[in-house]
Structures are given as C-alpha cells and as structure tokens.
C-alpha cells in the first residue's frame, strides 16, 4: 500500500512538472515536438537515473498519457515522438549500472553529463530523422534541456537526501554550501543584468550578454559544482527573459546554443574547482596526520632519552656502590699483605694486586663518566661544557680550541640538556680521535625558537659516518626525531650545524 501511494504521488508530481516544463518549452519554440525534446528531457533523464527502476513504468505511463492528450489537441502531430521516453531508458540504465561504483560528486556529475550527451544522440538518431526540424536543432534541443535540468535536479536530490540524513541520524552534518545570502546577491546580479539588457541601445545589448558568464565564474569559484549548476539555471532564466523582452536572440538555435554553452561553462568550472578543493582538503588532512605522527615520534624520543639517562644513572650508581667498594677492599687487603712479614714474592704479589685495583678503579671512573657524567648533576650546562672541553686537553695536544657559549639563559628541558651535552661530547671525541685538526671551534647560540650548535674543525674530514658509541648517524636520528635540523659540510675540514627547538614541550603537533 505504501509503495502504491508513493508511485501514485510520483506519477502526479511528474505529470505536473513535465506539463509545466513543456509549456515553457512550447512558449520558446512554438513547436510541440521540439518542446517535448527541450526541458522535459532533462526532467525525465534525471528522475530515471536517480530513482529506482520500479518507478519507471509510472513515469512512462504519465508521459505517454500527456503526449496522447497533446496529440488530440493538435499541439504535437508526430507519433514518432512517443519513442523519446523509451530511448531515455538506455542511458539511464547504463548510468544506474555504474552509479554505485563512483561515489565522488564530480564522478557522478560526469556520468550524468555523459548520459545527457548519449540521450541527445539517441533522440537525434531516432525521432529526429522523421521530424520536420533539422537534425542539429533536435540534437541541440535535447542537449540543452538535459544540461540545464539534469545537474540541477541532482543538486536538489543531494540537498534533500542530506537533510533527511540529518533529521534521521540527529547529528551534525555540514549544510550544503549554498547559503541564502548568496542566492539573494546572485538573484540581484541577474536582475541587474536583465535590466541592462532591456534598457540599453540594441546596438550594444548583445555585448552585455557576457554578463551571464560572470555569475557562473564567481559562483563556481566560491561554491564549486553546486554554485556552477545553480548559476547555469539562473543564467538560463536571464537569457530567456532577455530574449523574450528585448529580442536579443531572434533565432531559436542561437538561443539553445548559448544556453548550453553557459551551462557547460559553469558546470565544468565548478567541477574543476571542487576537485581542486577536494585535493587540497586531502593534502591538508595528510599533512595534519604527518604532523601528528611526527609529534608522537618526538614525544617517544624524549621518553627514550629520559629512559636512557635513567638507565645510565642506575648503572653508574651500581658501579660506584658495588665495584667501587670491592676495589677499595682489595686495595686495603693488598696494603695489609704488603706490610706483613713475608718474603719478596708476597710483597710482589701485593704490589701487583694494588696496581690491578688501581687500573680497575681508573677504568671504572671512565665508565662512570661516560654513562652518567657527574657534571650534569653538579653544574649548569655552560660550566658542564667547559669542563667537558677541559677533559680532552686540547691545549696539551697543540690544538687551538675555543668554546663560545652565548645562550641568554640555561635550558630548562632535561631532554634538551642531555642531547646538547651528548652531541658536544661525541663530536669532540670524533675530532680528537680521527680529525687530526689544529683548530676546533664550538659555539652555542639561540635563534628563536631554535638553539644552534656549530662545531667546526680544520681536520682531514671523513668519508663514512663514525659508527662507534653515540655515532654521527645516531646524532642525526635523534636530532631529527626531536624536530631539529642537521647539516654536515666538509670544506677545509668538517662543520656540523645542529638546530634544536628551544622548548621541546611546545613543538606544535
């Protein structure tokens, strides 16, 4: 019962709309056959494409009934025109077959435009051969009606479907981009164009028809394909009013050609702009996802740095507490053995034990400094870097070393302090072991919002990254993971510039 009611309502609605469009077309063409091929073609093709096939019989029956009545009233005289509705079934069925495969608006709109073109060719080939009008006029009439109404009905269909989903799901769905203010201004623009066409001299009124293209361009640029479709319909109304009121178009073929041209311009430009906006939206979404992933990676790197330093500190404490105490006990025992009244062999063994304990003690202290330099807990960063430089004893090796620390304040981020210290430690260690340099320059400055570490020497350089310890590869990976920059150049030596954010916690996602 519900399906019967919907079918009956559709038949009545389609009949009224079809008859109204035929009346407008007949007023423009003064030909009953051409009127059936003009605006009613667009309505038929759009509804057959968008609605289920179970409604097709009701639509065909309604249209055939109206066509028979028009023939009885001598408003159309060729029975061959009754084939027109059945020919439209072919492109409509093809579009429905591919409709669900293409989900993007511009793909479906292109399908509809292809259906309009195919339907126009079919109308020209079948009824057009037996009609008195030229084939070109039959083709253009069918194409003009389709290009004007089919995209417009699709626009209304999408709007109604969206409103239905919004009410059904009770959730926020973005409204269509066509706003009331836009419609008002666009209507005023078209009204102004009509007035200019009607009031100015006939010699220049044809030049003013170019005004119809301006709303197409503006609305397509601002609102994509929806704006282009709406501008095409309103532009057609303006052209039609101009033609009827001032006689700007004395030839029906010229009128239909101009209507279809301006419609194609607006719709084509709208599709292109909407496609570009969609691509820009996708790129922006991918950029935000990438930034979020980078931010997550930076946070993970910070946690790894803190975890690494905590593990180093724990190992250093264990070495100091356990091994240090055992070495001290060994030294005490060696002293007792050495003082005991035994032979030379005993004293030699005691001496060897003492030397071994001293060697172990020295090695342990070196390990402790590498694992967790005490200066990081006891000194500020500037003093810790000066202390680190003094441990390499560059002056005793004949190396001119300069450290230029020009930060306005001490960094508060522990990850940044650890990273800067490890960077300077590893770079100076590489220079000391491999560079063979006579001059070394280290500077630490701030270029908001970045800290800049610049380390350069006049050594021999290198051909492969150093792999031991922290390593240049590890330096680069850590710097980039923290959102910093890394530049390495080898001209008259080696220069490495590292830039790190001044506050890692404020890195934008």
Short description:
This protein is an alpha+beta fold and 509 residues long. It has helices at residues 2-29, 32-37, 39-50, 56-72, 84-87, 89-99, 105-125, 135-169, 180-199, 202-205, 213-246, 252-339, 344-371, 375-378, 381-391, 414-435, 472-481, and strands spanning 400-405, 439-447, 450-457, 485-489, 494-501.
Tell me about this structure.
There is one protein chain. This protein is an alpha+beta fold and 509 residues long. The chain is built from 17 helices and five strands. It has helices spanning 2-29, 32-37, 39-50, 56-72, 84-87, 89-99, 105-125, 135-169, 180-199, 202-205, 213-246, 252-339, 344-371, 375-378, 381-391, 414-435, 472-481; strands at residues 400-405, 439-447, 450-457, 485-489, 494-501. The chain has a five-stranded mixed sheet with strand order 1-2-3-5-4. The protein is rod-shaped, with a radius of gyration of 42 Å. The two termini are 57 Å apart. Mean pLDDT is 77; it is low at 170-176, 466-470 and 505-509.
Comma- or semicolon-separated keywords:
509 residues; alpha+beta; 5-stranded mixed beta sheet; 17 helices; 5 strands; disordered C terminus
